[in-house]
Amino acid sequence: MAEDNKRTKGAQMNVGIGEESDAGGGKAAYPTSLGQGNLQINREFQEKDVIKRAKDLDMPYVNIGKMPLNPDFIKMIDLESAVAARIIPFYRIGKTVRVAIDDPNNPKTVEAIKVLEGKGYTVSKNLASNSGMDEGLAAYQNARKYKKIEVVKKVATENIKTYEKEIADLAKLSEKLGKVTAEEALNMLNLGAMKTGASDMHLEPDEKSVKVRLRIDGMLHPAFEMKHEIFNRIAEQIKYQSRMRLNVMTVPQDGRYDFTFNDQQIDVRVSTIWTPYGESFVCRFLINGGESLEFEELGFQGNDLAKIQNAVKISHGMILVTGPTGSGKTTTLYSILKKIKTPQNNIITLEDPIEYHIDGVTQSQIDEKNGYDFADGLRAILRHDPNVIMIGEIRDLETAEAAAQASLTGHVLLTTLHTNSAMESFPRLTNMGLPAFMVAPSIHTIIAQRLVRKICPKCSKMEAISDSEAKEFNDAMIELNSINPQAFVTAPSKVARVYGCDFCSQTGYKGRMVISEIVHVNEQMKTLILNKKSSVELIEAARKNGLTTMREDGYFKVAKGLTTFEEVHRVTNFSI
Predict the structure, then answer these.
(1) How far, in Å, are 138, 467, 479, 553 from residue 537 at the CA level?
(2) What DSSP line would sit under 429-456, residue for residue?
C-alpha cells in the first residue's frame, strides 16, 4: 500500500484532526497518537518466501491480499467450494481466468481447477501466501453477503403505470412479466430498477434463460432470470421505444427512451450487441431535471473542497476531470457547470452522448458518423460566442489542440481525460503531441477521482481498528506527515465495519462518494512543464502546493467512518 505514497516531498494539508462523523451510528476521530498494542509481524517476509517458492515451481506470484477483488469472478466457483479448495479467481478475459492458490498439490484445489476447465476456461495458476489467501477469501465472503434485492415500496406517483399494487421482490417479478403485455413488462422492469437505485440494467441471454443483473453503487448484482420467449417480447418493446431497427439483430445498436417516475423524467440509454443466444441489452438510467449535487455531497472535503470551489471562479483556463469509466467524472463536470451557470455566461457543451439536460445551457450532440466530431464541434462552438465550454472528452491531438487554444483565448473549458492520477495528465497530453508551451499555460486545475461505496447507516458499526489496519494507515501517512509535521496524522482508534441489512440488500453499503486528488497548476509547476522537467519534480512541486493522493483521501474518509479499507483498496489499486 505504501508505493502509492512514496512520492517526492512537499505539501501542506489540514487534515482536520479531531473531526468526527456519526455515520454508521458511531463516532470516529483522528487521535493524536496510535494507542495501539504491538503491531502484527511484518507480512513482507511471508510474501518473499512465497515469491521464492513460486520461482522454484515456475509459477507466477500474486499478492492476493492486496488485489481489488471482483465478487462477480467468484461466481465461477461456488463460494463454499472456493473456501474449501483455497482458490480465488481474480482476473478474467473471455474464457481465460487467473486464479490464486496457496498449495498446487491440495486435492480440493486440483479438483476445483478441473471443474473450471470443464466449463471451458483456460486456467492460469498463481501462487499466493496463506495469509493472503485468508484475506482474499474473507473479502469475498464479505462481498457475497447479499440476498435477492427487494422492492417493497409502492410507487408514490400517478405518472407511471405500475399495473400492480406492489411488487414484493424481483424474484416474483420474473413470474409476472409473462402475464402482462410487453409495454407493461418493460414498465415493471423500469420500476424495479428505480426502486433498487440501479444505475444500469443488464439483460444477458444464455442457452437456457436470460439473466437480469442490476448495477447498484457501482457493483453488479444478479436479480433474476426470465424465459427467452418473455425476453424476446420485452427486447422488441425496448427497441421500439428506443427507435432502433426492429428487424436488425446482428449489428450493435444504440438508442434512447424515457419514462416518468415520482415526478422525475428518467432517460434510459440503451446499447445492444449480438450473442449466439440473442441480443444482449444494457440500459443506463439517467435522472433528468434533478437538483445538482453540492461538492460536499459528492464527497469533496478539506483542501480538495477548497480547491474545487476556487476553480469554479476562474475567468479562463482548463479544468480537467480524470479517471476511468464509471468514476463519476460526468457528475462532477455537471456539478461544476451548474455552479458556473449564470445569466451572464453563455455555456455550450459538446457531448457524446448528452446524459443530462440542463436548463439555460446549450448542449450539442456528437455525430461522428456524419462527420461531427469533438474537434470540428469545438471549432463550431467557438463561433457562438461562449464564455464556458464543456467537451465530453479529449481523445486525440486535434481535440487537445482546440481545447488548449480555447482555454488560452479567454474561455473556461471543462473536459475529461482518461488517466489514473492527476499528475499523469501532463505526460498524457504531451504524448498525444500537444507541445509543452500549450500544456503549461492552458491547464488551471486537474481533478482525479474514483468512487467508493459509503457504509450503510443502518447496519454498520464503529469498532476497534486492528493492529494490521493501524500499521497500514500509518505507513500510508509517512510521507504526508514528513511534509507537514504540525498536522501529524495517525490511525483512528475505530473504523466502520459493515454487516448488511434489508435496507442495503445485505451489502453493507448504501450510496457512493468521491475520493480525489486535485492539482492546481501554479507558476512553479508551469515553469517545470515548460522546461520539460521530470514527473518526480512535478510531483514534488504539487506536494508543496497541497497535493494529497486519492489513497490518502480515501484513508481520511475511512478514519471518519464514511467508508472502509476494502473499498479504498478496490478502487485505488491501478494494476493487476
Answers:
(1) 40, 35, 15, 22
(2) HHHHT--HHHHHHHEEEEEEEEEEEEEP
Which class for 225: exposed (0-12), middle (13-18), buried (19 or more C-beta within 10 A)? middle
Return mean pLDDT, the chain. 83
Tell me the β-bridge partners of 282.
202, 271
Report, as an integer, the average pLDDT of 415-430: 92
Q: Which residue has the higher pLDDT, 14 or 470?
A: 470
- What's the pLDDT tens digit per position in 30-64? 333 333 333 345 677 888 889 999 999 999 988 88
5 neighbors 480 (Cβ within 8 angstroms) = yes
Q: Which residue has the cell 510474501?
A: 47
Measured in Å, how far apart are the chain's first and last C-alpha atoms?
A: 14
What nine digits make up the cell of 395?
481523445
The predicted model gives 375-400 an average pLDDT of 90
* Distance, CA of 458 to CA of 508 (rounded, Å): 9
Tally Cβ neighbours within 10 Å of residue 195.
Answer: 18
Peptide bond into 31 cis (omega under 30): no
Return the closest-CA partner of residue 189 out of 198, 477, 523: 198
Whole-angstrom distance, CA of residue 444 vs CA of residue 311: 8
Report how far apart, in Å, the C-alpha atoms of 384 and of each of 319, 353, 381 are: 21, 21, 5
Burial class (CB in 10 A: 0-12, 13-18, 19+), 452: buried
Q: How confident is the model over 380-385, as a mean pLDDT?
A: 89
In terms of Cα–Cα distance, which of 541, 253, 245 is closest to 369? 253
Average pLDDT over residues 467-479: 92
Residue 388 CB-half CA count within 13 A:
27
Give CB contacts under 8 A, 24+ apart, made by 349-352: 349/389, 349/390, 349/391, 349/392, 350/374, 350/377, 350/378, 350/381, 350/389, 350/390, 350/391, 350/392, 351/390, 351/392, 352/392, 352/393
> Residue 95 is which amino acid?
K
Tell me the pLDDT band of 180, cut-offs 50, 70 and 90: confident
pLDDT at res. 565? 94
What is the band of 311 on the pLDDT scale with cuts at 50, 70, 90?
Answer: very high
- Residue 293, C-alpha cell as written in the block: 449535487
Cα dihedral sign, 218-219-222-228: positive
Hey, what domains does the chain have and what are their CATH numbers? 45-143 (3.30.300.160), 170-288 (3.30.450.90), 295-453+512-551+563-572 (3.40.50.300)
Backbone angles phi, psi at 181, to 5 degrees: -70, 165
pLDDT band at 91, cuts 50/70/90? Answer: confident
Extract the C-alpha cell encoding 267: 432517460
Contact 180, 233 (CB under 8 A): no
Taking the C-alpha atoms of residue 99 and residue 97, their distance in angstroms, rounded to an integer, is 6
**pLDDT at res. 34:** 37
